Amino acid sequence: MGNPLLEVRNLDVRFGAHRRSREVAAVREMSFTVAPGEVFGLIGESGSGKTTVARAVMGLVRSATGSVRFEGREILGLSERELRRVRRRLHLIFQDPYDSLHPGMRVREIVEEAMKIHGVKDRIRRKEAALVALEEVGLTPSSLFSERYPHQLSGGQRQRVAIARAMVLDPVLVLADEPTSMLDLSLRLGILEILKRHRDTHGTGYLFITHDLALARYFCDRIAVMFRGKLVELGPTEAVITNPLHPYTKTLLQAVEELAPTEGGRDRVHYSRFDLENESDPTDSELLEVARGHYVARPPPKQPMSEESVPEMEV
Amino acid sequence: MSGTMLGRIGAVTLALFIFAAVFAPVLAPYDPTQRSAEPFAAPSLAHPSGANDVGQDILSELIYASRLSLTVGIVTACLATVLGVTVGILSGYLRGPVDGVLMRGVDVILSLPFLPLMIVLAAFLGQNTTNLILVIGLLIWARPARLIRSQVLSVRESGHVQAARAMGATHGYTMLRHILPRITPLVAAQFVRTANVSIMLEASLAFLGLSDPFQKSWGAILFYANARSAFLADAWLWWVLPPGLCIAAVVVSFAFLGYALEERVDPRLRSTVPTSESLTGPEAPTPAREAALK
Amino acid sequence: MSDTLLEVRGVSTVYHTRAGPVRAVDGVDLDVKRGEILGVVGESGSGKTTLVMSLMRLIKPPGRILGGTVLLDGEDLFRLPRSKMPARRGRDLALIPQSAMRALNPVIQVDRQVAEAITVHNGTGRKAALHAARERLEEVGIPPERHSAYPHELSGGMRQRCVIAMAVANQPKLVIADEPVSGLDVIVQARILRLISDLRESRGLSMILVSHDLPMVARVSDRIAVMYAGRIVEVSEAETIFEKPLHTHTKALVEAIPRVHALRRRDERE
Q: How far apart are the first and last CA of chain B?
């Protein structure tokens, strides 16, 4: 297998001076690795800390402790200048296509920007690379789209521009933070297709962050489930989805089932009723390997695994 | 009346004044420094605005004075805006100690009483136009700086700013290419407001006799009018009213322009719904169809 | 009393934009039976929110309702004088809006807000209204100790429950829910939907459920109307819409939706 592309060890982010939004939850001693060319999914709901993990990997969280090694090199604690060099090979796709593109820049300028920032001075080369990137994400004819402004594009098209921007420097690792959650359902698979195609042709690795298990199943090789900053289950996608072990994972899958029609009837499937509010802080962060490559955090002792109708509290 | 309508009125009026200022030598019927009529002459065809105590044509005075008033207003606004934008962006973007220091400076300036301070400075530094511009400009940048900082604080959190940083952009690049373009509408509106304020301040200082004695602005005309008791005589009609109206007209025009620009800053107008996502097949409702539906 | 609670015919609404007039809703016909949940599914730009706003007569310039009839229990809401609509809204016709935070007053405690909804339409005394309000809140699953909380002190799911409580407090004839669970976590979504389902059973509510999330809507609704470009292109039973989508647009929607427990995985599709 060779050296891991990304190696996160005991990453920890606490509520410090940086408190921007409610989503910035603590990340508690998280560890995982991403192999070159692998699609690693980070599954979690709001408050789980998944976005914070992505930002920490990008070196955007000053108060992060622990270790994040990208291509063998430690990222946490690097100076801005050193980080810039790393950021050439590492790119982040944001969730909100309406916010992540500069409204005053043309599509071409947006896609070229990464090249410009990293010193590609040749205008013609930049333009050509941008056009190629636009073709790859399906915005054809690229010459037409390249001159448009973001407000002239739909949400799906904007997100494609964001992807083109991410790919133009041919990064080895792409972090995608909920890239489809603000798009209509019918557009989501299309976007994933683009990412998949890029992975197949360029061998890019992905850290794919989502709350949508269906997408994870479609795209990811391995997934890790996060709950309140902790990793509760980790393993190959198929294994975790068909055989979830942690109560939180089970509840998540049950909810997904409830929200989607099953074949033949709409009977309710009862898994465990995970009491989100009263879940005690699992200080036990050890992951037990239950099957090959499939790890689970030891569930807290008080968890009711029964099926009685307990009035549900919410976080 | 919509903001844009007001803006157009303001812009047109200002354009007229600027035109008058630029082409003063051509437009003014007489040389305002030369005596051309009887002292205190009432308005006539030859002198539509009469004459002052020396016998100089007031209309010509007004036209030439527009140069000074507008110049002071605009140059001061430029100075103040550059300062305000720089401080606002640095403060809002970098935050931390830089923000702390700069904002304390702003607080100090804002707590100073402007007019008395300017009177003292003008008296102290000497009365000439450059001093006037400096004195006003170095004080009125503070409020715009605050407002700009506010907006920078919020723009800073935008996705595209974070994306630029995540791509490895330096602070300077981000401030210049990502923050500045987003705050331009606010800066424009602030520029106009600042110009307004400085024209008023200049007029006030001039009225108090603190302006450059060699160049008459509208406020200075009023100063002389007052000094020669024009307020108490009939002459107020053609000596006091016209410069007062000129000041008022310019101030109101700037204000109208300001309204129009501020309307553009209002996020209500910034639509995030992309036009190409709107419906397919929209047809203009024909009168017949509309009638049929009623 | 007929079976049909709501009969919508020929509703059209236009928006006057700088690019010209745009028909957001174009000749929509709909029926909602008593005790039924009708799902209205459409993507962004399909006009579904405009339809909701039109039915509630909440369209403001630059939008304008061009015409149509909306018979709620035989009464045409479009023919009512404007002054009478507020009495209908909240009492006969209730809206669960998309974003709970927008519907709730941030400086008033939630039990008082629900009480206000009751008082406005029933003229009940303050004490009685507050008591009733607290009952409603419990009914939607908010525990007594949180009744006096302010909206920002509650989680997203709880806020949505408050909004639902306000909507059903006066036993409306019809509830319109516009994206009631979008933006909420998956687990919370499932629970809110369960609540809506339960309320339908316990109170016999009739509902229009509007969303872009077809699977979610199919799970809860009896029938589904698919909306595209301001028009209703298909109305089907929820049970069969996935197996037998009729209109091309519906087919496209159904095919494009990723599912966790689909029988066929991605590599099996090709």
A: 31
Alpha carbons B50 and B28: distance in angstroms, whole number? 13
Of C119, C113, C123, residue with least CA distance to C166: C113
pLDDT digits (tens, 9 = 90+) for C218-270: 888 999 999 998 999 999 998 888 888 888 888 888 888 777 655 333 333 33
Mean pLDDT, rounded, of chain C: 87
In whole angstroms, give the CA distance from residue B178 to residue B193: 24
Which residue among A87, A154, A157 sits closest to B168, beta carbon to beta carbon? A87
Q: What is the pLDDT of residues B232-273, one digit of tens each?
A: 877 788 888 889 999 999 999 999 988 888 777 665 544 433
Q: List residues bridging with C38 in a β-sheet.
A: C208, C223
Q: Looking at chain C, how many residues does it have?
A: 270
Beta bridge partners of A39: A206
CB contact under 8 A, A314 and C188: yes
Q: Which amino acid is at C227?
A: M
Helices B3-22 + B241-265 axis angle, to 10: 130
Q: Scanning every residue of chain B, which has its alpha carbon at the shortest distance from the alpha carbon of C9?
A: B293
CA C230, CA B201: separation in Å to the nearest integer? Answer: 57
Q: How is chain B split into domains, by residue range?
A: 3-26+55-270
Chain B residue numbers with beta carbons less than 8 Å from the beta carbon of C22 are: 278-279, 282
Chain A residues inside the 8 Å CB shell of B270:
103
Q: Quick one: fold of B3-26+55-270? A: MetI-like fold (1.10.3720)
The answer to whether the Cβ–Cβ distance between B168 and A158 falls below 8 Å is no
Helices A247-259 and C186-203: crossing angle in degrees, nearest 10, is 50
A68 strand-pairing partners: A8
In whole angstroms, what is the distance from residue A224 CA to residue A305 CA? Answer: 22
Is there a contact between A192 and C258 if contact means CB atoms under 8 Å apart? Answer: yes
Interface test with C, best of A258, A266, A267, A272 (most C CBs within 10 A): A258
C97/B contact by beta carbon, under 8 A = no
The structure's pTM equals: 0.79
Residue A259 has its nearest CB partner, among C212, C216, C239, at C216
**Residue A266 with chain C: CB contacts under 8 Å:** 219, 239
Residues of B in contact with A154 (CB under 8 A): 274, 276-277
Chain A 220-259, residues with CB within 8 Å of chain C CB atoms: 241, 251-259
* Closest-CA residue to A244 (of A263, A262, A271, A267): A271
Q: How far is C240 from chain A (nearest CA, A)?
A: 10
Could you give the residue ranges of the DSSP H alpha helices within chain B? 3-22, 24-27, 58-94, 96-111, 114-125, 129-140, 142-155, 159-167, 171-173, 180-207, 218-227, 236-239, 241-265, 287-293
Predicted local confidence at residue A271, as pLDDT: 43
Which sequence spans correspond to the domains of chain A? 98-170
Of B160, B181, B274, the CB nearest to A154: B274
How far C235 CA sits from the closest chain B CA (Å)? Answer: 20
**Nearest-by-Cβ selection for A185 from C158, C213, C261:** C213
- pLDDT tens by residue, C124-142: 888 999 999 999 999 998 9
Q: Subunits touching C (CB < 8 Å, at least 3 pairs)?
A: A, B
Burial class (CB in 10 A: 0-12, 13-18, 19+), A265: exposed
Low-confidence residues of chain A: pLDDT under 70: 1-2, 15-25, 261-286, 299-315
- Within an 8 Å CB–CB cutoff, is residue A155 touching chain C? yes
Strand order in the sheet with A73-74: A27-34, A6-13, A65-70, A73-74
| pLDDT grade for B58, boundaries at 50, 70 and 90 | confident
Pairwise CA distance, residues B2 & C108, whole Å: 35
Distance between first and last Cα of chain C? 53
